[in-house]
């Protein structure tokens, strides 16, 4: 894709990403420059730029990258989110994935910060939600028993992305709506941006309920 092709990416798509960032900032889920959002556009991915304040982000704070290797297309001057590699893992493994949201929603982040998840690299853990009515909103095959993976928060994002990619490769799309990263936040995927946001809301609500019911003994 060259600079002329960038004009084929609708301005409305860039604004939709920016609007969602501002919306989640308003809910306290993307404070400061935290969090990132992406949508698929053909063989490319439009993602929020690195270091942009989510409360004032606009469509100029989005970057079009190659869905395969994350490289910027000609004409893009902003640096893409530092967590682009994690987003690309979803697009690579789930062909129906049209959007990814990573947020620092408080209850999801709090749950993923419990001491039981500080495992010094001992693999993927899980949070389980059993017989929770709200889990039906995730649209999974078995909402009666939802397992959300919790990944090690490696300093190198590409190492996290490799772990995520390996997990998704072995997990059917209808079994996984999102994931947690220890002490770092929540990531969800969806057919489109609204679907990914709905799943984000459901995961955050499930984490809130779990902490209210079980506190630090969450299973």
TrEMBL record:
Enzyme Commission number(s) from the entry: 4.2.1.109
Provide this UniProt record's keywords sorted from A to Z: Amino-acid biosynthesis, Lyase, Metal-binding, Methionine biosynthesis, Zinc
* GO cellular component terms attached to this protein's record: cytosol
Metal-binding: present as a keyword of the record? Answer: yes
Q: What's a GO biological-process term for it? A: L-methionine salvage from methylthioadenosine
Kindly name one Pfam family recorded for this protein: Aldolase_II
**Domain Class II aldolase/adducin N-terminal per the UniProt entry, residue ranges:** 15-211
What Gene3D superfamilies does the record tag this protein with?
A: Class II aldolase/adducin N-terminal domain
**Which SUPFAM superfamilies does its entry note?**
AraD/HMP-PK domain-like (SSF53639)
Q: Name one GO molecular function term.
A: metal ion binding
This protein's source sits in the domain of life called Bacteria
Q: Which InterPro entries match?
A: Aldolase_class_II_sugar_metab, Aldolase_II/adducin_N, Aldolase_II/adducin_N_sf, MethylthioRu-1-P_deHdtase_MtnB
**Protein name as annotated:** Methylthioribulose 1-phosphate dehydratase
Question: Its gene?
Answer: mtnB
